[in-house]
Write a structure and sequence with these properties.
There is one protein chain. With 897 residues, the chain is an all-beta fold. It has 4 domains: 135 residues, Sandwich (Immunoglobulin-like); 241 residues, Neuraminidase (6 Propeller); 237 residues, Kelch-type beta propeller (Neuraminidase), CATH 2.120.10; 246 residues, Neuraminidase (6 Propeller), CATH 2.120.10. Helix content is 0%, strand content 44%. The chain contains 1 helix and 73 strands. Strands 1-9-8-4-6 form a 5-stranded antiparallel β-sheet, with no helix packed on it. The radius of gyration is 36 Å and the shape is globular. It starts with a strand and ends in a 10-residue tail after the last helix.
């Protein structure tokens, strides 16, 4: 980069004797004068510094002085260039003379340096008060936003389009016979790491280029499945998991390694499978030191697409979308979080024979060129890595905990030791302590229960972002202290807050605004103690629920049924000794139960999974960060606003109040005369898809309704039985299968049963028609249960308009259907159906001009009318879809590295 200079001693002056007269006088004896020097910074980027000499105080006779530059800390020809020059003035000449010092531009980060301007050989009687000036050469070479590794250098660039090279350093210390094949920046400390071709790990000083051996890959002693022996492949991608600080290595042969970079201990995880079996580059999102969640992406060059590797340890890859460019060689892939917490992704790739930089949309996979004419030649680049941002904000974790020290903390299920947030709880009245917290499913508002040391309990509204407690309401019945309390909201019907205690308390708060409450029958049955409580199916308008409690006296799980009667029914033993501070929360999206416990002999509160069928408490997922004991936990409520199609217009429906319908807008970019038949969110990516009557498959932006056609349905060449031809306008139900290679299932009222194994290709199999002779099925809507990313099991349910029943398609490919039960409501010929939570379905039943919104109990088939959808009588709802957040927990499996 260019260097500039400034003068530390900016003026060299020859001082002439002056008389004592106050009035100016002509000199009695003419003199040759004095020479003053000044040094100016360069006026442009030419890299030249001008030394100006001025003759003052006399001009008699010819005079001269020699100017030269000598090394200080700077080195001639390397840092500057200047030849000795004699400046001369004729008799009577007072014009300024100049001398130029050239600054040699380089890319080395070396700090400020000095050079010495030396003044010698004054002639003609001119005199010099000083003979030397000091120049400081300012080094403006700095590490840029990205580092580029080449076979011989490490470069840094100062802009996202790689248009300006900020620094360069020659690599030193690379062992003979070893090639550096990949590079990444470690979020934990910002250090730069590289993988050697022989399975070694190095750090690189980007300022000096010094390469230092840090570790050699070797099988982790705990890996008893397929211990590591050597790298396999010719192209490799490496990236640090920012949550657990482990290095992921993938290769073009499908090798999938998880490495402790400090020791080299290596786990050989399951080889890459699914959408692709080999990757040449990978990158984690949220690449900053405090990240508590992350997602692993990869580049599939064989098909020019972006993929997810989720779970990373299982090697499962699923397609996100096409890059839209033909990449012949990948030279790097990385992500970077900005000051708002948003993650951007970039690749350095060869496209059309030209190496360039592309911005990659992590939601769609689309790559957009950022390369300009000023991009340097990076044709020898091996890899690049983006520098790590600091002080990056991030959303709270999915689980919240109230600590004994008065903090509200949040974390993820997979890595509870890495807090996502921690704020002090304020606003609680002096003398009160928090006994428990819970989110109310119907509103998504966080509430806290406090006690005052006597018999008064109060409920506060608690801000999960700031920890500020407001709107305290006293509970109308006594809440005695001295016992451990458990609280949880009932997600069905009029939402009530259940309060139980280890002393047998059993209270139902029926109105949060007034504190109205009922003291139900004291706990009884298997025991009379419950230190924590949790309801299943905790989503808005749940169709059914079960109340579980923790008996920490006898270390057993109980069901409280009926809740108002306080009857405790035994489930089974925990298998561990829980203390009274244990807390319970059940995720309504998959009914996985979580317990916090201060186990005997432990130093902190640990997070465990609780088996609701046996009562067994699993080994700890980890100790919750922050170092304080946790008094209660609760899960972030799922988003249960449903997206729907009103014709070709995207709208949202509030399940708690279906009359509340919000229009997003008409879906754009549809093919001419194409009508949308249905929509669904793909669990693995969270992307909303739509299916059109002409067979078009679209992605739809849920915020704007902007549609993008990605493919059209066509018969799969391998389908030799009854190849697909067209859809038509008959009512259809569509839903993504969340298991294995994610397939789109399309079921029609005319018994059509289609399967699209890969939605990005549109190739379609015609499976066996849904079978029943009398009466024939008229399945107008279908939905898969267990809509979690990476789900291993699922069931396909449907609504039969002929018999008004809920059915299960037990073998979708072969068309075998089993009846679940009578809905009790009329389905109509164009019903829509979606599943949110383990046992709750949502449906819009359209038997007449009214559009009835109902919840459906998947275990019994019973439908419960909630209200009428707020759309015109002549409008038709042709599809509903729940966002992934409403059906699946946040994608945290990737944090395992």
């Amino acid at each position: 980069m260019r260097k500039s200079a400034y003068l530390l001693s900016s003026l060299l002056t020859l001082t002439a004797a002056c008389g004592d007269n106050l009035e100016p006088q002509e000199p009695s004896d003419p003199t040759p004068g004095r020479i003053e020097f000044a040094i100016a910074e360069p006026a442009d980027e030419a890299g030249e510094i001008t030394v100006t000499a001025t003759r003052t105080g006399g001009s008699t006779g010819a005079v001269s002085v020699t100017v030269a530059v000598a090394d200080g800390t700077a080195t001639a020809t390397i840092d500057y260039a200047a030849s000795p020059t004699t400046l001369t003035w004729a008799d009577g000449d007072t014009a300024a003379k100049t001398f130029t010092v050239g600054i040699v531009a380089d890319l080395a980060i070396e700090g400020d340096e000095t050079a010495l301007v030396q003044l010698t050989n004054p002639t003609g009687g001119v005199t010099l008060a000083e003979t030397q000036l000091t120049l400081t050469i300012k080094d403006d070479d700095r590490l840029g936003v990205a580092l580029v590794l080449t076979p011989t250098e490490i470069l840094s660039v100062g802009s996202p389009d790689f248009g300006i090279t900020s620094s360069a350093a020659t690599l030193t210390g690379v062992p003979s016979g070893v090639d550096l094949v990949a590079m990444d920046v470690r979020p934990a400390d910002g250090s730069v790491w590289a993988l050697g071709s022989n399975g070694t790990l190095f750090t690189i000083d980007p300022a000096s280029g010094a390469v230092t051996l840090k570790a050699t890959l070797a099988a982790d002693a705990a890996d008893g499945t397929s211990p590591f022996t050597a790298l396999a492949g010719t192209e490799f991608g490496i990236d640090f998991n920012p949550v657990v600080d482990r290095l992921r290595i993938v290769s073009d042969t499908g090798q999938n390694l998880r490495v402790n970079p400090d020791t080299g201990a290596t786990f050989t995880d399951t080889a890459l499978s699914g959408a692709v079996t080999g990757l040449r580059a990978n990158a984690y999102s949220n690449s900053f030191a405090t990240a508590c969640r992350t997602t692993l992406f990869g580049l599939d060059l064989a098909n020019d697409r972006l993929v997810l590797q989720d779970p990373p340890n299982a090697g499962t890859t699923t397609s996100v979308g096409a890059l839209g460019v033909d990449v012949t060689e990948i030279r790097g892939f990385d992500t970077q979080a900005d000051a708002t917490g948003a993650t951007s992704a970039f690749i350095l790739a060869t496209v059309g024979g030209v190496v360039g930089v592309y911005d990659v949309d992590l939601a769609t996979g689309e790559a957009t060129s950022l390369t300009t004419g000023g991009t340097p030649d990076l044709s020898d680049a091996i890899d690049f890595a983006l520098t790590v941002a600091v002080n990056v904000p991030q959303p709270p974790g999915e689980l919240f905990g109230a600590s004994a020290g008065g903090k509200l903390v949040s974390f993820t299920r997979a890595t509870p030791g890495k807090l996502c947030s921690s704020v002090a709880i304020t606003g609680i009245t002096a003398g009160e302590t928090i006994a428990g917290i819970d989110f109310r499913p119907s509103t998504g508002v966080l509430h806290a229960l406090t006690t005052d040391g006597g018999n008064t309990g109060r409920i506060y509204t608690l801000d999960p972002q700031t920890g500020v407690a407001t709107s305290p309401v006293s509970i109308a019945v006594a809440i005695p202290t001295g016992a451990e309390l458990g609280i949880d909201f009932n997600p069905t019907g009029p939402v009530a807050l259940r309060i139980v205690s280890s002393a047998g308390l059993n209270v139902r708060v029926t109105d949060l605004a007034t504190g109205a409450a009922t003291a139900d029958t004291a706990l009884n049955g298997a025991n009379d103690s419950a230190a924590a409580a949790g309801y299943t199916d905790s989503i808005t308008s749940a169709g059914s629920t079960v109340l579980y409690v923790l008996d920490t006296e006898l270390d057993r799980l109980r069901i409280q049924n009926p809740p108002n009667a306080g009857t405790l029914v035994d489930v089974g033993a925990f298998g561990v000794d829980l203390d009274d501070l244990a807390s319970l929360d059940i995720d309504g999206r998959d009914n996985v139960a979580y317990v916090t416990a201060n186990l005997t002999g432990s130093t902190g509160t640990s997070l465990h999974i609780l088996d609701l069928t046996t009562g067994a408490v699993a080994a700890a997922a980890g100790v919750i960060g922050g170092g304080e004991r946790i008094l209660g936990i609760t899960r972030t409520p799922p988003t249960t606003t449903l997206f729907a199609l009103q014709g070709n217009t995207l709208v949202t429906i509030n399940p708690a109040d279906p009359s509340s319908v919000t229009t997003i807008g008409a879906v754009t970019n549809l093919s001419a005369n194409e009508q949308l038949l249905g929509i669904d969110f793909r669990p693995s990516t969270g992307i909303l898809y739509g299916l059109g009557s002409l067979g078009g498959v679209y992605t739809i932006d849920p915020a704007t309704a902007a549609g993008t056609r990605i493919v059209g349905l066509s018969a799969d060449p391998a389908d030799g039985t009854l190849p697909f031809t067209t859809l038509g306008s008959s009512p259809y139900g569509i839903d993504f299968n969340p298991t294995g290679p994610v397939a789109l299932r399309i079921v029609g009222q005319n018994d059509v049963n289609l399967r699209v194994p890969n939605v990005t290709t549109g190739l379609t199999f015609t499976d066996t028609d849904l079978s029943r002779t009398v009466p024939t099925y008229a399945i107008t809507a279908t939905a898969y249960a267990n809509n979690v990313a990476g789900a291993t099991t699922t069931s396909l349910f449907g609504l039969d308009a002929n018999a008004n029943k809920l059915v299960a398609v037990v073998s979708p490919n072969s068309g075998i259907v089993r009846e679940i039960g009578n809905l009790g409501l009329t389905v109509g010929t164009s019903a829509t159906f979606e599943i949110a939570g383990p046992n709750t379905g949502f449906a819009v039943l359209q038997a007449d001009t009214a559009k009835s919104f109902a919840t459906i109990d998947l275990t019994t088939g019973v439908a419960t009318a909630v209200g009428t959808v707020g759309v015109p009588a002549n409008a038709s709802i042709v599809g509903i879809a729940a966002p992934v957040s409403a059906t699946a927990p946040a994608a945290n499996s990737t944090v395992f590295a």
